[in-house]
Amino acid sequence: MDFASRKPLYEQIYENLRDKINREMYPIGSKLPTEKELIQTYKVSRITVQKAVNLLAAEGLVRRRSGVGTTILKREKSLPSNTLLGLVVPGILKSFGTNLLIAMATETARYGYSLIIKFSQEDEQLETKCVQELLDLPVRGIFINPLQRSFYDPLLMQYILDDYPIVVMDKEFFGIDEMFVGSNHLNGARLLAKMIEKLGHTNLGVISYKDISNSTLQIRQDAFVQVYAHTDTPLKANTFAKIIETSYSHHDDDAALNLDIERIKQFILRKKPTCLVVPDSYIGALTREAISELHLKVPENICLTGFDINNELNQSIRYTYVKQSEATIAKLAVKMMADRLQGKSITKRVQKIPGEIVDCQTVIQKQLMHPLGQ
Fold first, then answer.
1. What is the CA radius of gyration of the chain?
2. Neighbour count for residue 263 (Cβ, 10 Å)
3. Highest mean pLDDT of the ranges 91-105, 195-209, 217-231
4. How many CB atoms neighbour CB 269 within 10 A?
5. Which residues in 64-80 are b (16+ Cβ under 10 Å) and which e?
6. Where is the HTH gntR-type domain positioned along the sequence (predicted)?
7. Do domains 81-183+326-353 and 185-323+357-368 have the same CATH topology?
8. CA 252 to CA 5: how far, in whole Å?
9. pLDDT tens digits, 261-319
10. I want to staple 304 with a disulfide (CB 3.0 to 4.6 A). Which of 95, 131, 209, 319 is the partner?
11. How many CB atoms lie within 10 A of CB 336?
């Protein structure tokens, strides 16, 4: 493995295993090495190996079965371009991404298409390159989950405006007449904000990224402002702590990680919120560590909630969150693309799926707490 490469280890392992399957080092019908063996071979974590194998499963090259192992189903083969669709994603969060990829591959296959997956690594130039490579193949249409940073790729914008078959997922491009499928982030955030407000929490802390801004993050923040604007305690500017400088795709520097955790700790000590809200599982994990280092208990001393979650976490360290249905997003996105390619009229170009609160008992009545400083 090239540990100096900007390409994530899981993607390098995925490409290496895919190459071995294509060269019949792992014949069809045989088993892929076990997780333990792959961990030893590549000298990486179990999570990294799982991500790599999940990508193989998303492309239909292998099938994973608990207790049986991972079976090789087929090799890649050259496909006529009229059956190809492209998918560009920034990466895979533990809370959002893996199930979407698998569902996208399954749904496209059901319509008779094959999916070419490209990773933009949260990089603007690489996203443009991924789109151009798919156009050069050519593919018949492109699905794209944009970067976390608000970035309007001129190449992509031009093709959307020219009505090329492009379906945007998860994060909207404001002001563009696009085909979009994603969660109803406003609805989900309002549900969460109303729940928190009804439980008596008026001193909140909403933790977010310092240098990352996109439509999803802004919509969620606006929802909290709107809900509390109709109460006796509207949210103040210091509720929103844009302090996180690392991200899920760029967090190899332990010193930078520790600085982010320290910033969260200082924010908690300074503002003394009774409830913290996080935008994703990455900041959720940093916040959990900060809370632990302060020797605070959830929810007795401080409540924790947010959006999306790493389902591999033990139940004891999960938090109440708004869940996105990756399978539904994939199903609607692929149907929209198929209808567009078949010349059908797209009467509803923007489709949003309602969010659902999953209660993990980490937000309780404020009056039942023993919060910091009281």
1. 22
2. 18
3. 195-209
4. 12
5. eeeeeebebeeeeeeee
6. 7-75
7. yes
8. 12
9. 999 999 999 999 999 999 888 899 999 999 999 999 999 999 999 998 766 555 667 89
10. 319
11. 23
Q: How far is CA 262 from CA 37, 58, 265, 268, 309, in A?
A: 37, 38, 5, 10, 22
Domain definitions of the chain by residue range: 9-72, 81-183+326-353, 185-323+357-368
- The answer on pLDDT for 1 being more than 60 is no
Mind giving me the DSSP string for 171-222? S--TTS--EEEEE-HHHHHHHHHHHHHHTT--SEEEEEESS---HHHHHHHH
Output the six-digit token pair for 364: 């309780």
* pLDDT for position 76: 72
Spatial CB neighbours of 81, under 8 Å, sequence gap ≥ 6: 137, 138, 139, 140
Give the architecture-level CATH label for domain 9-72: Orthogonal Bundle (1.10)
Burial 85-113 (b: 16+ CB within 10 A, else e): bbbbbbbbbbbbbbbbbbbbbbbbeeeeb
**What DSSP line would sit under 91-129, residue for residue?**
--BTTTBHHHHHHHHHHHHHTT-EEEEEE-TT-HHHHHH
Indicate whether 150 pLDDT > 80. Answer: no
- CA-to-CA distance for 142 and 310, rounded, in angstroms? 27
* CATH class in words for 81-183+326-353: alpha beta
- Residue 333 CA to residue 21 CA, distance in Å, equals 29
CA distance 145 to 118: 11
**Cα–Cα dist 365/54, whole Å:** 40
Topology of the domain covering 185-323+357-368: Rossmann fold (3.40.50)
- Taking CA 124 as the corner, what is the angle to CA 6 and CA 59, rounded to the nearest 5 degrees? 65
